[in-house]
Write a structure and sequence with these properties.
By secondary structure, the chain is mainly beta. The chain has a domain of about 70 residues: OB fold (Dihydrolipoamide Acetyltransferase, E2P). Helix content is about 10%, strand content about 40%. The chain has one helix and five strands; from the N terminus they run βββαββ. β2 and β3 form a beta hairpin. The protein is globular, with a radius of gyration of 14 Å. The N terminus is likely disordered.
């Protein structure tokens, strides 16, 4: 992912206000629900360069998920997903179902 962040306006932002989490749902266009590590659920914006990764992730299945690094910003700005990658458990039965996205 590091090779394509040159055009991303968030790549030079100090990373002190970032948290890790799991994308748990798609809301609309570029808005996603993210359950961060402390258990809270937040709404975050996903930059266009990461949307193709999100389209591969089957939402709502516990054995395959989209992990995310989220940049928290002061209100009224929404948090921004700055990193996203597929993760999951391995072993028998860990084959992911088809994504609901085209």
């Amino acid at each position: 992912m590091a090779e394509d962040i040159g055009d991303d306006k968030f790549h030079n932002v100090p990373q002190t206000a970032t948290v890790r989490g799991v994308v748990t749902g798609f809301l609309r266009r570029d808005l996603f629900t993210v359950r961060i590590d402390d258990g809270r659920e937040i709404t975050a914006v996903m930059p266009e360069r990461l949307l193709s990764e999100a389209a591969k992730a089957p939402m709502g299945f516990s054995f395959v998920y989209l992990s995310a690094k989220v940049l928290l910003r002061p209100p009224p700005k929404l948090p921004v997903i700055i990193e996203a990658s597929m993760s999951g458990l391995c072993g028998i039965g860990a084959e992911a179902p088809q994504s609901p996205f085209p």
